[in-house]
Amino acid sequence: MGKDPREILATSPMSVVQIVAVAITIGLNGLDGFDVLAISFASPGIVREWGIDRAALGFVLSMELIGMGLGSVTLGGLADRIGRRRTLLGCLTVMATGMLMATQAHNVYALSVWRVITGLGIGGLLASINAVAAEFANVRRRSLCVSLMAIGYPLGAVAGGSIAAVLLKHGDWRAVFWFGAALTAFYIPLVYFLVPESIEWLCQRQPAKALGNINRSLIRMGHAPVDALPAVSAKARNLSVADLFSPQLVRITLLMSFAYFLHVISFYFIVKWVPVIVVGLGFTVPAAAGVLVWLNVGGATGGAVLGLLSLRYSLKALTMTVLAMSSVMLAIFGRGQADLAHLTLVCAIAGFFTNAGIVGLYGILAQVFPTNLRATGTGFAVGTGRAGSVLAPIIAGFLFRAGYGLQFVAVAMGIGSLAGAIALWFLPFKSEQAPCSS
């Protein structure tokens, strides 16, 4: 039998096809960043039009997180069963539908339903693109490629925030969702024509016509075709979500889910509440959108820096450090700033560390689970974390309504990142080797 296709990709320079596929995952995560933050951009207008209070807004802000939690767990597992490519296409269709129908909502209840549906697609997308970025990269560049994929989120939020600021000047909050629906639909043909099925997944699952599909992709990537599929046991091909709790993986599954859950509580507090808090401090709605943009500029920078540092330093140690710094910056954010420039700077630095934490966690997730459980494991950790992060906007909303000031709320919500760093301390994690085992 010839060389293992997975080993060919793991040890060879990345081809144009692989680079394009990773670039598309960056764009897809950018789409996720815009879609998730669309409700934050729109929230001041929703409050004004429907006259809802902060507690009710907290529930609306959490709705897509519920869908994301469900979508990550269920559709992430689907990506391991039917393939990365088909799952991506299905998730994009669900997301576009949810964004489009949000424009037709006339009350909190209808909007909440469509945000849950949008979240289902986003959740499945997140688990799938993490696997795609990891599996289209070679071993040398894998951590960097996953990090680049992850910084698509703040990049999308930056671009989306700039566009949203313009849309909100010339229309109501629904214009943000119209734009999001169109942008989501645009990515469907890009994925269809430019992202082939993962060779690593095809080797592991070995569906019908797997060898032909692998060879077509290898030729597109500039490699010679192979004669046969690698030997993979039936047990290895058919692992399920239950195997995440096997003796070999249960500790990893629980610690990663716990760390992600704790950090996204802090992350989503600042992401979801910044626009409302900035307006509450006496600044304008466009100014609030601008602060949110700079929060994500800092996030994109932090993710890129962490990705580059991971080429030389321990990803686990880097992630623990930025998680601890996230707690510090949220406490500083809670002090409030009378000057818009200082408030923007603090938010940008907070975004640097909070998003670098997300990037680090995604990088670890891409390495700690085997290929046939990579999307399932990522989906489970992200799903339970995102489902738990539903609590972040709700808890913050109730704390504000109970009369607690911004300083107390920010410190309380920032504790999650520090606790996540402590959870990672106990994680067994080593740098990955070439993915050649069966």
Explain what the structure shows.
The structure is a single chain. The chain is an all-alpha fold and 438 residues long. The chain has a single domain, classed as MFS general substrate transporter like domains (Growth Hormone, Chain: A), CATH 1.20.1250.20. Helix content is 78%, strand content 0%. The protein contains 18 helices and no strands. The protein has helices at residues 5-11, 16-50, 54-82, 84-102, 108-135, 142-150, 152-170, 174-194, 199-205, 210-220, 234-237, 250-280, 285-309, 315-333, 340-368, 371-389, 391-401, 406-425. The chain is globular. 57% of the residues are buried. Mean pLDDT is 89; it is low at 433-438.
What brief labels describe this structure?
mainly alpha, 438 residues, Growth Hormone, Chain: A, disordered C terminus, single chain, globular, 18 helices
Instruction: Give the overall silhouette.
Output: globular
The helicity comes to over 70%
Q: What name goes with the CATH superfamily? A: MFS general substrate transporter like domains
Number of strands: 0
How many helical stretches?
Answer: 18
Rg is 21 Å
Give the ordered list of helices and strands.
HHHHHHHHHHHHHHHHHH
Secondary-structure content class: mainly alpha
Largest sheet: none
Low-confidence stretches: 433-438
CATH-defined architecture: Up-down Bundle
β content, as a range? under 5%
Mean pLDDT: 89
- CATH topology, by name, is Growth Hormone, Chain: A
Please give the domain count.
Answer: 1
Query: What top-tier CATH class fits best?
Result: Mainly Alpha
